[in-house]
Amino acid sequence: MGAISRYYVSGWMQNLSRSGHFPFGTLAVNVIGSFLLGFLVRYAFLHNVFSPEVRLLIFIGFLGAFTTFSTFSTETFNLLADGAVTPALVNISANVLLGLAAVWLGQILAFTLGS
């Protein structure tokens, strides 16, 4: 389900961006997935709402398949191979920084809801 969701969300975001060159779809699923993982990890810790099996199913199964480091790496490599160094560096920076920010925001939201 995570991979299928990634396919549709990534395609939708890529079409929405109207960018044929920059991988906005992959960036979107990585940021969304980072936010969801940050939120759910903190929420599960605060409220003990998931069994270990359900945590594995959601965190590794669904969200692991939803986000995609290999696609990010391939798209970045392709940008570099095409000589698009600036977009490649923007892609690297955006995925890392926005992913970290999304995890942080997800954890803050879970903590706020848990208070």
Task: Give the helix/strand layout.
Layout: H1 2-17, H2 24-47, H3 52-66, H4 69-81, H5 85-114
Account of the protein in words:
The protein has one domain. It is elongated. It is an all-alpha fold. The chain contains five helices and no strands. 85% of the residues lie in helices and 0% in strands. The protein starts with a helix and ends with a helix.
Summary keywords:
single chain; 115 residues; mainly alpha; elongated
User: Which strand-content bin applies to the residues?
Assistant: under 5%
**What is the number of independent domains?**
1
Mean pLDDT: 93
Shape label: elongated
Count the helices. How many?
5
How is the biggest beta sheet arranged? none
Radius of gyration: 15 Å
Q: What is the string of SSEs from the N terminus onward? A: HHHHH
Question: What percentage of residues falls in helices of 4 or more residues?
Answer: over 70%
What is the CA-CA span between the terminal residues?
Answer: 31 Å
Structural class estimated from helices and strands: mainly alpha
**Which regions have little confidence, pLDDT < 50, spanning 5+ residues?**
none
Question: How would you summarize this macromolecular structure in one to three sentences?
Answer:
By secondary structure, this protein is an all-alpha fold. The chain has helices at 2-17, 24-47, 52-66, 69-81, 85-114.
